[in-house]
Amino acid sequence: MLNTSPDFKENSRRAMQDAGLQKALDRARKPFAQTRAAAVARLPEFETLRETAKGIKNHTLAHLDFYLERYAEQVEAHGGQVHWCRTAEDARNAVLDICRRVGAKTVTKGKSMISEEIGLNEHLAENGVRPVETDLGEYILQIRGEAPSHIIGPAFHLNREDWEASFRAAHTHLPADRVFHEKRDIQAEARAVLREQFIAADVGITGANFLIAETGSSVIVTNEGNGDLTQTLPRVHIVLASLEKIVPTLEDTVSLLRVLARSATGQEFSVYTTFSTGAKRPGDPDGPEEYHVILLDNGRSNMVGTEFRDMLRCIRCSACMNHCPVYLTVGGHAYGSMYSGPMGSVLTPAIFGADQAHLLPTASTFCGKCESVCPMKIPLTGMMRHWRERAFERHLAPATTRYGIRGWGFVARRPGLYRSVSRLAAWGLGVMGRKRGRFGWLPLAGAWTAARDMPAPEGETFFARYAREQRSR
């Protein structure tokens, strides 16, 4: 289970020096934002849909206990079974128990961030069950021994030559003259290998974008069709989902689907949107003999009723990270968590604890772009501020940072003193920097000047100019 969040600063330094990663980030920086903008422009009622989606999730969270119970009743009515899991360990053990009971040796998996959150692959492998990722990006990361760096595009950080090198290392049957000029060459090679795994699998595990209380259905959206094969070919289908994925009705689900794909990939709808309801019924041509839902809490119920409740509206579209200048500079792995970018900076401390992830909420310029594109209108910057406040109160931030903020706060709360200090500081720095016009080093600002020069102040302060302009009017 990946969690190197305490190393965020060092992770970021390495990421910015990684030429291959920077090449991949440069290539991907514009397409996600451009396709989303185009998709939104084609739908005049998009803003109205955002409000509708927000209202649906707020209503669900306000009555979460009711809809969870309703969902469980419907799953059981359709021959399925719900496993209530408070912790990651509970969820791992529930999956392993099912696999052992049915004698599973191979498990195919559709992309699931919950499986990353609970460290499922490692747990299954340690207990003699071989997990096989079937999403193309997840598959290449599995044979590379890497974790996903993006929710929608897990191999966001790789270049084509990385994919080819990984296939050659893992697929020893490849002839030396086999080339991978285009995406379809990579897809064909993966398809040939994974087809055998789909057929051999005893258990299929998928995530869920939504769980519908009205019908007991799970919904998964993909662009590759691997989710369908994962949940229909094996004898047993296991759905891994966190409890906030509950949605009241089919109609509500459609409303959320309309904002999901547009926000994620700029599509009106994903290529495959699959509804799964229970086990195979008499007369059905295909489908699993057993249907299980692992419902995970893992700290989420502690967020209900707090200043972090709005984070539970997240539908994992990745729009916030696709527009975040910090994420697009350091990539997902720097965050040290399966949840990266602005949404990860809020969710990771809630799941793993602020002591482990208190640096992540500082990984933001607070430009507000994440909030402006979030289809669920989640106040991400406000919640990052709350985590910063908690880190300050619990002395998790470095002493120099705490004392600096406390000193600044003392001055900032006294307008007259603030104006005097800022005027004196601007004058002094202006005099000292007059010759070069910039500073290569400043006391108490070493972290800033280590990577960039600081311009020397010129002219009067903003307050002085504002007062002068007001007098002149």
From TrEMBL:
* Domain annotation 4Fe-4S ferredoxin-type: ranges: 305-333
Superkingdom of the source species: Bacteria
Q: Where is the composition biased (Basic and acidic residues)?
A: 7-16
Molecular functions per Gene Ontology = 4 iron, 4 sulfur cluster binding; metal ion binding
Pfam families reported in the protein's UniProt record: Fer4_8 (PF13183), LUD_dom (PF02589), LutB_C (PF11870)
Q: Does the keyword Transport apply?
A: yes
Q: What GO biological process terms are annotated to this protein in UniProt? A: lactate metabolic process
The UniProt keywords, alphabetically, are: 4Fe-4S, Electron transport, Iron, Iron-sulfur, Metal-binding, Repeat, Transport
Q: Which PROSITE patterns match?
A: 4FE4S_FER_1, 4FE4S_FER_2
| Residues covered by region (Disordered) | 1-21
InterPro entries referenced in this protein's UniProt entry, alphabetically: 4Fe4S_Fe-S-bd, 4Fe4S_Fe_S_CS, FTHF_cligase-like_sf, Helical_ferredxn, LUD_dom, LutB/LldF, LutB_C, NagB/RpiA_transferase-like
List the protein's name. Answer: 4Fe-4S ferredoxin-type domain-containing protein
Classification from the root reads: Bacteria, Pseudomonadati, Pseudomonadota, Alphaproteobacteria, Acetobacterales
